[in-house]
Every structure is written in C-alpha cells, then in structure tokens.
Amino acid sequence: MKIAKFVFGLICLAILASNIVTMSRWSEARGVYDDICYLRQAHLFQRLGIGGLNTNALLDYDHYFEDKMKEIAFAEWRDPIRWPCHNPMPNGKVVMQYPPGTGFLLALFPQGYQVVPLYVAASLIVCSLALLGIFMARTLPSIAGAGVFGALAVYLMINPAKASYSIAPTMAICAIAGFLTALWLTRGRRSVLLIALIGLLLGASVNFRLPNALLAAGYCLFLAGAFLWSRSFATFVQGLGFGAGVLVGMAPTLIAQAINAGSPLATTYGSADVVAPAFDFAVLGQYLRDMQFVLIVLAIGSTVWLLQMGEGRVRQVALVVAGNLAVNLVFFLSHPVFTPYYVVPIAMLSLWSVSFAWLMQPEAARQAAVLRRDPASLEALPR
User: For the whole model, what pTM was predicted?
Assistant: First the structure.
C-alpha cells in the first residue's frame, strides 16, 4: 500500500508540476473582458487600499482601464457606460459588477505578474488536499479512488479553471470546505467552531463569485432539518455558528455593494444577468456535451453510493451533499446562460466532501457496510 500511495502521490505532483510549467507561460493580456475587469479591481486595491472596494468609473483618473481598452481596440473606451462588465447604478455611479475577492487576491502580487501566482497558490492547496486524501486511505481500492480523484482535481486547475480568474480560489476553498465538512460530521461530537469555520469559508467564496452563495444551501437545509427534528439548543447553536460564519465571510461583498450600489443587498450586476429561472433545452444540451456533465454524474453517483454504503455519521455528509447538489443544479440548469465552469464548484465541493467522508469512516464500519450489502460475501463467511 505504501508503494501505491507513493505512485499516486507522484502522479498528482507530476500533474501539478506540469500545470505550473503551463501556467508560467500564460499571458495576462488575453483580451478577455472579465480578465481586464478583475485586474482593474486589483489595480484599485493596490492604488487605494481598502478604498479599492469603490469601483466607480470616475476613479480611473490614471487611465488604467482606458489604456487596457485601447490595447484590445475597444471602440468605445471613452464612454464608461459602454465599458464591459460595468453597469450604471441608480445612484449615478458606473461600477464593476464583480465582487471584490478575486481582485483582492490578485492585488497581493506585483502588477503584471498576478494571475500565475494566484493559480499556482490555489493549485498547491488543491494538490495538498489530494495528497492528504491519498495518505489517509487505508486500503488499495480507497488509495486508487483517492489517487484518481486527486489527479483529476489537480488537472481541473488548468481546465476549466482557466476560464475565469474567480474559479481558481473557489476550487481551493471547495477542497478545504469538503475536508472540513467530512471532519465535522464524522466526529463523535460536532464542533461549533468547525461548522462556523466552514460557514466562514463558504461565505468568503461569495467574494469571488456571487453564485457561490448557493454552496451553503445544503448546509442550511441540513441544519434546519436537524433543529426541527431535535429542537435542541446544541443544533440551534450549530446553525447560528454557521450563519454567523457565512455572514462574516461575505462581509466584503456586502460592504462593496453598499458602496457601489447603495445597499448591501443591491446587486451590481445588470439586467442581463438577473433573470428569472427558465429551463432551456439548448442550455441543457450544452451541459450534456460539456465536461461538467461528467462531474455532475460523478458527484451524484458518489453521493448515492455513500448513502447506501456509509454508516450513520457518514450518511449525514451525503445528506448535506445531496441537498447542496439539488439546489445548485436546479438553479444553474434553469439559468439561461451557459459557461464551462458554472457547476464546477458544487461538483467539486460534493466530491471532496464524499471522498473525505469515506476515508474518515472507521475501517470496521466500512467493512461492515460492505458485508451488509454483499450477499455473496455473507455466504462466504464460516458458519
């Protein structure tokens, strides 16, 4: 088993090294609107500090964004209302639509060399969690499972994570939150601090992408159900801790929306992005032809498998994951816009949670679960 762990660990590290070499060749001048807008947010933080939360177009008095628009031959660079990923607000401002987290992380690195370090740092976190899973595995099948999934998770940091700068930090948070979710529910006594930390991480992920708020849906459903079932003070405190963590984590976005849109609950996105859900077979067809469909199938299949094969505490992880998957898939599959990364965060959070839950299950309980569901094995037992 040590050899198997070594081999799969080496595979993950080899993919990581290959990714880093590929990332080192990336250009920050791809001409993609989203990229330029995230870099503008980073520039505002570097120039104004915390004042960078204000993305008013009037703050472009050093012509940073205008120059970026000229570089890609954007014809209407003089008119802020026509700027990509900027929207006019009722308060008269023209502001950037994205939450501030991705720009803040990019601002931690020198201008002109921001994207590669961000992706490398996120990839190191994901690879570390993959290696942890391989180290925790205690049987050859579980080593193989953890190794294959770890290799897949590290590879995904190139594709589709490259499609948006916001996905790289989101993937890192999903890996950590998946580990902590399994740790929280498989222990004998649930820690309030642990569920609060999970809430903090999921809340912080909202600062990268507003739809990441849906990643907390399954936890809310589980905690609400647990409280209604037991009506105990302990479950109430668990829910309170999680909610407080989420609120604190997403506070930068709430503050940014108050500054830019006039209210913490007002969106900076335009009407094209704020649309009512409506199932569109064309959008569903795009998902069916995309790699995300494979991740969805893996997430659903592994959750069903964990519900059948896991012991009591482990099944609770599957219940959280199932609720999360249901809410997120209904939302994104009914959203009239398709991208190659919309459902990647929920799929990866689900897979990390299921993987670590199975690895954390006591070996005796795991073997008992297998024997209960394998009649042939029962017949083979000595009488």
Answer: 0.92
